Amino acid sequence: MKPEEIKSQVLGILGKIAPELDQGGLRADRPLRNQVDLDSMDWLNFLVALHERLKVDIPEADYGKLQTLDQLLTYLKERLPA
Amino acid sequence: MMEFKLPSLGADMEQGKLLEWRIKPGDAVKRGQVIALVDTSKAAVDVEIWHDGVVEELVTKPGETIPVGTVMARLRSAGEVAPAPSPTISPSLRKPASPAARKRARELDVDLEKIAGTGPHGSVTLEDVEKAAKAPGPAPSIDRQLEMRKAIAAAMSRSKREIPHYYLAESIPMRRAIDHLARANEKRPVTERVLLGALQLKAVALTLRNFPDLNGFWRDGAFHPGAGIHVGVAISLRQGGLVAPAIHDVDQRSPEDLMRALADLVKRARAGSLRSSEMSDPTITVTNLGEQGVESVFGVIYPPQVALVGFGRIAERAWVEDGALRAVPLLSATLSGDHRASDGHRGARFLAALRDQLQRPEEL
What we know:
The complex is a heterodimer of chains A (82) and B (364). Chain A has 82 residues and is an all-alpha fold. Helices cover 56% and strands 0% of the residues of chain A. Chain B folds into 2 domains: 124 residues, CATH 2.40.50.100; 199 residues, Chloramphenicol Acetyltransferase (2-Layer Sandwich), CATH 3.30.559.10. A 6-stranded mixed sheet of chain B has the order 9-19-18-17-12-15. A 5-stranded mixed sheet of chain B has the order 7-2-4-5-16. The longest helix of chain B is centred in the middle third of the chain and has 23 residues.
């Protein structure tokens, strides 16, 4: 999957979970959950949606590597076939 | 003949607007069945009935706003004989609309009654609903926010006026619970993963079994214990405001089951689709503000309940255990208690028991 495609899927899911989010104002190099006000339930729903759309199961142990949007996209790129 | 009255769906509700009936005269209804959709200032609530019977007459019309306690419908119990049928044909009570249109109208907060239908027999179609939602008009979401603010103001003012609160706090080491959960979650796919919040709810409920004086209601100058342990979960809504609907019999449910219930409740609360029993019968409330980064929360009791448990952030702190200094993840748990129903001594014992319960996560 192309990086742009992954990004558009990720932003699409975020938009569903946080409809009030101004995606233009999102900083890809800053902690994501703070910016989007995702609590642990929102975060889990986000991961479940990623699992449904991209067929990727992210273990809890990897949460620490997924602080920013950039880190998340890099992680997904590595896990998904190109 | 039985009368079905508009139930109070929480201390902050004074009136409700009937959105639609889910029953019609002649229908047999069962205990627990959803019979109407009622809009409170906080959400559209599926209202359930608590008796078996046969619908005789629908008194309230969709679109009407009525005070709590108003007779909405009359029913006869199963054995009662039906009176002679009325010769007049009752007009259709609800606007014809496709199920998809009805669902969409609820999602978009559009009043079906006010839409001119273009479908067969003037029924409202999905397209009609979406068109109506886009049409310029008063913004209903702002009204709802204003109404919700008013409802919360009324309930919280009543609480602070009537309930003599006492407040207690306790630091709870969470290493065991966190490790236990991490091990269990390793084996679970992402769709079945359990959050610490679900374990905390279970721990509160199990502990409450030994503290029935904190689980129930203060009504008419006396304490009435709850029939079960129905934990109200404070859920903040993204557009502002909060609701605290109940998960029923929390002490009897597995963490996996509780997690599903919690996820479902949060989803429905945010979509504005809750059931009357969830709104009206929490026996205690739990609020969790730790995710917002606060250390602890001393909550305002939701009347007529008599206690509220607050959870703050879990953070690593210096902790002395067995004479050694360690870095331990600590959770600040608080209890707001109604001094009419219990004393600080009982409250302190409750928090100590909750702390001990969380050291035995395998029981949760």
